[in-house]
Amino acid sequence: MRALPVGDRALLVEVSTDEEAQALHADLLRRRAEGSLSVREIVPAARTVLLDGLDDPAGLAARLTTSKLPPAPARAQEVVEIRVRYDGPDLAAVAGHWDVSPQEVARIHAAAEFRVAFCGFAPGFGYLTGLPARYGVPRHATPRTTVPAGSVGLAGPYTGVYPRSSPGGWQLIGTTDAVLWDHARVPAALLSPGTPVRFVPVES
Length: 204
Hints:
Elements: E1 2-6, E2 10-14, H1 18-34, E3 41-44, E4 48-52, H2 57-65, E5 80-84, H3 91-98, H4 102-111, E6 114-119, E7 126-129, E8 144-147, E9 151-155, E10 158-161, E11 166-168, E12 171-175, E13 196-201
Parallel strand pairs: 5-13
Antiparallel strand pairs: 1-2, 2-4, 3-4, 6-7, 6-13, 8-11, 9-10, 9-12
Helix pairs in contact: 3-4
């Protein structure tokens, strides 16, 4: 673990894997909730966690880098179910990468237990982990100029759902009517770091 100063009151903590980033994020949230850590924002990413609004960044950096990272605790959070039609334009290509049929891609994907590792790219977009490493797929060499909202895609080890129409290079395997970001909803984002997610197949 390495802690790098960012300005006067922030730290960027680097770890080796996304699992460690999730465990660190959970531990920092726990510390803040119990009052042993004063911090304004805790923002996880793939292999980093940013802490902003610290009173003593150097002191916290020293403590973090000399302590053992605990495993991520089991979460009792309710599972978010996302109904998906496995009808994406890249379904056959993903089936080729996996050496299975398109129907088997849908079965494998829907059977996985996903969790939001971190959020980014666009408001409401969560990077979900849960597929075994052997099912990682490459991004498109040339991104599409427009990916429709609700597209379910794969890239590397992650699954994601596009919350709005935007350019994108992920392999699109399905579509959903779920609303990932809604200003009128509290919270506006359907998904947040740590949220467990299950994809439920529906007929096209």
